[in-house]
Write a structure and sequence with these properties.
- The radius of gyration is 32 Å and the shape is flat.
- The protein is built from 15 helices and eleven strands.
- It has a three-stranded antiparallel β-sheet with strand order 6-5-7.
- The two termini are about 55 Å apart.
- It folds into three domains: about 130 residues, Rossmann fold; about 160 residues, no CATH class; about 70 residues, no CATH class.
- Strand 10 and strand 11 form a beta hairpin.
- The protein is mostly helical and about 375 residues long.
Amino acid sequence: MTKLIFEAIRETGQRALVSKGWGGLGGNELDKPDGVFMLGNCPHDWLFQHVSCVVHHGGAGTTAAGIALGRPTVIVPFFGDQPFWGAMVARAGAGPKPIPFKELTSERLANAILEALKPETLERAKELGERIREEKGCEAGAASFHAQMDIDKLRCMMAPSRPAVWQVKTYGSWTGDIRLSTFAATVLGNEGFLDINQLRLYRPCEYPVAEHFVVSNMRGPNPILGTVGSFASALTRLPIDLGKAYAGVVYEPYKGAKADGWRGFGKGLGRGVGHLLFRRRGLVIDGRQYGLRALYDAIRKHINGNTLSFILASHFAQGFEEAKMAKEEECLDVVRRWHQLAPDLKLKRSGASGAISSTPMSSTSSASAKSASTTISETSSTSVGE
């Protein structure tokens, strides 16, 4: 590939900057032509300002960087979406037709570079660059992202201008579970309407990272497609799993016999047949088996992890800071909305039943609750700092 590129550069008579990249182009720079400089890592948005045209694989980011700066583009696609972007550049007139890497020759590459350097190609690339620079891509992308979100589901029910981070379970009221911001939770805790131990982290949407967790799929952004995808993945792996099981009928006895003679052969045969007839116990994620003990340890580590402790402490600290800086009218509005909803809260204590009354405590109880809440918040913050 290096020799091919060097030969194409000689044929064009141009100077060139060649990026070595992870593919190691250039090798030991054998037979490097005059006017060629080998580059290491270099930002495209700066580099492309100083060249006449660019030649690359056609990734979306690299293509955008070149066209946005008005540079004619030669694309040699390898896989994925790269042929698409090569075709789009050629269709727009900002470069020649893409050359698939399997069809790449020094002559074709040289001709493509010379075509990219033609005045009409350069002019078309400049026009596209101006149009792209006029676009507000970040703003449009953010607007599209927010347009597809259920914003009301993210709001605090007591202070709608603030995001909800806490959730409080309720007893079958029409309001459902209560969503609270850090500010609203602190105000209500200070007034004695709820105990901070009742607060649970609010996660409006789950993004499953393990396909085999069907429950997390059902809580994800697209429950139907997520669950269907999990089953489709399992069906795809079924022939592989069956093949492994059949191979085990042969391999396990062989391994056992090698280790312990006929006795090992019998044990290995039992294991192989068992794996064929019965699926492995425990949880299997991406082909790796997790027993019950390993699963328990993973969940325990997640629940008691430093990251979760930091999130909880940060929310508590943020709530008290916001409550301290808020105007009295904002706090009163939170209390007013609470009275309007009048939720019946579930008790946190084990074995308890019934509901907690939404009637405010006495001033003495309120002060005690405020003191206790402040102590818990400070303790949480201190432990994270340590």
